[in-house]
Amino acid sequence: MNGKIISLTMVLLLAVLTLSANMANPFGPHSITAQLVPAGKAKVLRERIDIHLVRDSLDYDDKSQFNIEYIIHAEENIDFPLVFLALNLDGLEKVTINQKEIKSVPLDPSDTKFSFLRFKDGYYEISYGKAEWERINLSDAFYFTAKLHKGENSIKVQYRAFMGYDRRDILTKYQIEYLLFPSKYWSSFGPIDLYLHTGNKMKAYAQDLGVPKAQTDTLVHWIIESTGKQDSFKIEVGEKISFPAKILLWINPEVLALIGSILLLYFHIRYIYKKYKTGAYRYALLLGNLIVPASFYGFCWFWTSLANYLVNGIFEHNARGYILLVMFTLPLIYITYDLALFVVDRSIRAKFQKKQPE
After folding, report:
1. How far apart are CA 246 and CA 269, in angstroms?
2. Radius of gyration over every alpha carbon of the chain, rounded to an integer in angstroms
3. Closest CA relative to residue 39, chosen from 90, 78, 13
4. Closest CA to 149 of 79, 56, 60, 63
5. Comparing C-alpha atoms, which of 321, 325, 327 is closest to residue 26?
6. Which residues are bridge partners to 214 per DSSP?
7. Cβ 12 vs Cβ 261: under 8 Å
8. Measured between alpha carbons, how far is residue 284 from residues 280, 293, 353 in Å?
9. Are residues 150 and 75 in contact, defined by beta-carbon separation less than 8 angstroms?
């Protein structure tokens, strides 16, 4: 008997896992951006990164607005080529050199002035030094020349990036990723001040930068003294939610649905037992076979919709492909469950028949 109950529980667990299945790409667009890459040697005294979480007025997606300033020391007046690497970015909004705005352009391999760019073995490569080359995609690189004067110079770069997210999540958590590896190609690279401006509605849920230097309800400040072996940093942000929503998401709606289904399974077997013990509940097997398998998805829909309401204000199941998933898997669950409970019913009946006096 216990073995059959465990087998049925495993079937329900498999159904829980299939709820996370998706019939289409579940992930939103994601940008990965990086520090400026020098095509020569120079010193970065310090870098300041301000990341603001903003809502795009055209597509209403949440995005990250980067405002970055480099303080660079030059030994003499020079024209200094710089490359900005980014994945899934339309371009730079604004580049300012010592308070003067300039334009950035995509890398063009036919332009002979790009002595730091070469084509080798079917790939484009960019030079970071005398003998160091890295492969890049030209569509992910933007170029500009900074006219630096002797002493300290300010280079400011502004752009808006996509934050990756999983559409299946009830609480959408956005991914911010920034590459730090270009710092090793400068002559020296000073500390990085990173400011994450979350605003009143958002917060940082996870990050790999360590303990913040300072933190308030609307701002988180980190100082990266040295990048060392850290090639990038990642920050996960999302909306602030209520305490009941936190509890429900921590337990997990699918787990609650599984618990509900196991309870119904217990009562189903209990009433089958009573059917043979008392003679009542003649239709216990039939009714349970009709209700329990379908109620599992009913529980899933209810708890997920409730969580979605507490987080997003909409009482609906947001899993993509959910209806199609139910159509494909529910018949299998019905067949498995009904056959298993039929065996349970026959076992209980045989048990009572043995007890009856001959």
Report:
1. 34
2. 30
3. 78
4. 79
5. 321
6. 221
7. yes
8. 9, 14, 18
9. yes
Q: Is the dihedral of CA 82, 87, 91, 92 positive or negative?
A: negative
> How many Å apart are CA 257 and CA 294, to the nearest integer?
11
β-pair partners for 196: 51, 220
Distance from C-alpha of 67 to C-alpha of 145, rounded to nearest angstrom:
19
Q: Return d(Cα 250, Cα 264) in angstroms, integer.
A: 23
Q: Is the pLDDT of residue 9 over 50?
A: no
Phi, psi of 115 (to 5 degrees): -70, -15
Q: Map residue 150 onto helix, strand or coil.
A: coil
Q: Is the dihedral of CA 336, 342, 345, 351 positive or negative?
A: negative
Query: Quick one: pLDDT at residue 4?
Result: 45
Provide the strand spans (E) within 150-257. Answer: 151-162, 173-179, 188-189, 192-197, 202-207, 214-215, 219-224, 232-239
Q: What is the pLDDT of residues 109-151, one digit of tens each?
A: 666 566 667 777 877 777 655 556 767 777 777 888 889 999 9
Name the strand (E) or helix (H) holding 245.
helix 243-251
**C-alpha separations of 293 from 272, 290, 355 in Å:** 16, 7, 32
Closest CA to 75 of 43, 104, 50, 103: 43
> What residues contact 179, with CB distance under 8 A and at least 6 apart?
32, 33, 34, 35, 85, 231, 232
Residue range 209-264, pLDDT digits in tens? 989 999 999 999 999 988 877 888 899 999 999 999 999 999 999 899 999 999 99
Model confidence pTM above 0.90: no
Q: Which helix (H) or strand (E) holds 100?
A: strand 100-102
Which tens digit of pLDDT belongs to each residue from 59-105? 667 889 999 999 999 888 888 888 887 777 766 788 899 999 988 87
